[in-house]
Design a protein that fits this description.
204 residues, alpha+beta, Hemagglutinin Ectodomain, Chain B, 3-stranded antiparallel sheet, 3-stranded mixed sheet, 53% helix
Length: 204
């Protein structure tokens, strides 16, 4: 009788469990209880949230970059166009202003020439006329120097094709070979740049 009693107690103790895995059996009770008793394992089977495809994000990023570069290009083009117009205007103003300054500097020389011509018509003193012409020439030279125009000195120096043009050659002996013997037309510089080449006679 005791052995049969112990056997019945073992059967009662195992009642409600699945002999295969040791988990509570669903027989006779709702299956939802199984998920509750196992710590919510049924929730892990839920469907994952839908994410936006990666290619859509990449397309939007590229479109943003294209729009940004396009905006920079348009702005740069506008700035360059404004710079070009401003530079052109400044050049035109510089040419007009520069020409005006030179003409204003030449007008006093022109006045002196008129006075010299009038004086020559009334006097027979050639020495006075000569001195007057020399003064006018010096005044004209000074006006050019104030504008950066200087005379190129070539007579007696070696011929330099960078500043002079040989219009004739003359047999002047071994010592004068390759040197400038005479200047037919004076050359001038504007700053460091040759404004007009000197025309010279070169010895050979």
């Amino acid at each position: 009788m005791k052995a049969e009693k112990f056997k019945n107690e073992d059967v009662n103790a195992n009642e409600g469990f699945d002999d295969r895995d040791g988990y509570p059996s669903c027989e006779g009770q709702p299956c939802a209880n199984v998920a509750d008793e196992t710590g919510g394992q049924a929730d892990t089977m839920a469907e994952p949230a839908t994410e936006e495809p990666a290619e859509v994000t990449e397309t939007e990023r590229l479109a943003s970059e294209v729009a940004e570069w396009k905006d920079k290009y348009v702005r740069l083009q506008a700035e360059f166009d404004n710079y070009r117009k401003r530079t052109l205007k400044e050049k035109m103003e510089l040419v007009e202003t520069g020409g005006k300054d030179v003409l204003l500097a030449m007008l006093p020389v022109r006045d002196d020439v008129e006075r010299a011509v009038a004086a020559m018509m009334k006097t027979e003193d050639l020495e006075a006329v000569r001195q007057g012409v020399q003064l006018i020439a010096q005044k004209f030279t000074d006006a050019l120097k104030q504008r950066g125009v200087t005379q190129i000195e070539v007579v007696g120096a070696d011929f330099d094709e960078e500043v002079a043009e040989a219009v004739a050659r003359f047999a002047a002996g071994e010592e004068q070979r390759g040197k400038v013997i005479d200047c037919v037309q004076t050359g001038y510089r504007l700053g460091e740049r040759v404004l007009r080449f000197a025309k010279v006679v070169v010895g050979e």
